[in-house]
């Protein structure tokens, strides 16, 4: 299922929450929607799911408006967390599966598989309210895709998960992609987006600052981050041509270059008779790019 947003605008009275948003998500892609608090991510998700109507523009699935598609093809983890506190984990998943048309062995197989993948086996017969916040979130996550949707929207799925559970979720998302599910998610943790997404959209106060492939975004900035572990002192590195900034990060230096072409002469200068333990030229991280694009006061 291909999702296409064209010139989408959402206004709440005089306030424009989303302004002229355009992007396409192709089948089997993992797409990240990133932006600061209030940027318009949840509003966008809700419009895509037809939970609220856009003021202008069009949102289509394979060319058809959302109202025409089978709702069971969609899965959604909303930002507001909530499961039935008194219901046992397994019963909860049976309930949500049945609600979306699953039954019998197929449902049982799915529940067994995901309970195992998310390491919830011991909690299977516990009431949801007795689970930790992270475990409750895992149950709600499973509930969002237990019915095998074709398109899954996850609003901040990583928030509140510890590093081990974050990895479980990352692997689950990759597995769902392998199975052909198209996934759209939001996250404030850029490393999650960086590791998972093929494409992304950066929103700032409802306006898209970038929409496209992660690699294309990185190429806009070029390979300007140079990490070096060397005995050459900081003061000398700072004097080298093309060096904008030198930061000390524990036992290494991280240089910001004006552009990629300055790396080779720096290598030649510092490798002259010297042993270099590390010399690594790379793109900026998504976190750095995000802060550059979105950060700063432009009022
Ligand atoms: N029902 C509403 N009425 C008026 N304004 C609203 C309404 N819903 C959202 N907004 C506003 O629209 C903007 C976008 O909100 P939205 O919830 O989409 O942001 P978000 O990117 O999901 O933020 P967060 O990361 O904090 O979840 C915010 O300024 C919010 O206050």
UniProtKB/TrEMBL annotation:
Q: Name the domain of life.
A: Bacteria
| One MF annotation (Gene Ontology) recorded for this entry | ATP binding
Q: Specify the ABC transporter domain's residue ranges.
A: 3-230
Tell me the InterPro entries matching this sequence.
Answer: AAA+_ATPase, ABC_transporter-like_ATP-bd, ABC_transporter-like_CS, ABC_transporter_ATP-binding, DrrA1/2-like_C, P-loop_NTPase
Q: What is this protein called?
A: ABC transporter ATP-binding protein
Which Gene3D superfamilies does the record cross-reference, listed alphabetically? P-loop containing nucleotide triphosphate hydrolases
User: What does the similarity note say?
Assistant: Belongs to the ABC transporter superfamily.
Q: Which UniProt keywords apply?
A: ATP-binding, Nucleotide-binding, Transport
Q: Look up and give the organism this protein is from.
A: Ureibacillus galli
One Pfam assignment: ABC_tran
């Amino acid at each position: 299922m291909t999702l296409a947003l064209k010139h989408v605008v959402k206004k709440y009275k005089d306030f424009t929450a989303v302004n002229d948003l355009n992007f396409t998500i192709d089948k089997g892609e993992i797409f990240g929607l990133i932006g600061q608090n209030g940027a318009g991510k949840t509003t966008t998700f809700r419009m895509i799911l037809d939970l609220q109507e856009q003021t202008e523009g069009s949102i289509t699935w394979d060319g058809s408006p959302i109202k025409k598609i089978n709702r069971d093809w969609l899965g959604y983890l909303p930002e507001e967390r909530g499961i039935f506190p008194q219901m046992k984990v397994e019963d909860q998943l049976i309930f949500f599966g049945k609600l979306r048309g699953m039954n019998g062995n197929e449902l049982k197989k799915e529940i067994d598989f995901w309970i195992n993948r998310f390491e919830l086996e011991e909690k299977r017969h516990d009431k949801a309210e007795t689970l930790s916040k992270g475990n409750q979130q895992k149950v709600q996550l499973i509930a969002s895709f237990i019915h095998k949707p074709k398109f899954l929207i996850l609003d901040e799925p990583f928030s509140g998960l510890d590093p081990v559970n974050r990895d479980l979720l990352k692997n689950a998302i990759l597995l769902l992609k392998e199975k052909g599910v198209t996934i759209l998610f939001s996250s404030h943790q850029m490393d999650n987006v960086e590791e998972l997404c093929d494409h992304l959209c950066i929103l700032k106060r409802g306006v898209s600052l970038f929409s496209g492939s992660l690699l294309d975004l990185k190429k806009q900035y070029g390979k300007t981050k140079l990490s070096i572990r060397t005995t050459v002192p900081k003061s000398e590195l700072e004097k080298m041509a093309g060096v904008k900034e030198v930061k000390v990060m524990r036992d290494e230096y991280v240089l910001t270059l004006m552009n990629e072409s300055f790396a080779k002469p720096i290598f030649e200068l510092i490798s002259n008779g010297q042993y270099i333990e590390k010399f690594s030229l790379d793109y900026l991280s998504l976190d750095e790019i995000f802060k550059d694009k979105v950060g700063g006061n432009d009022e």
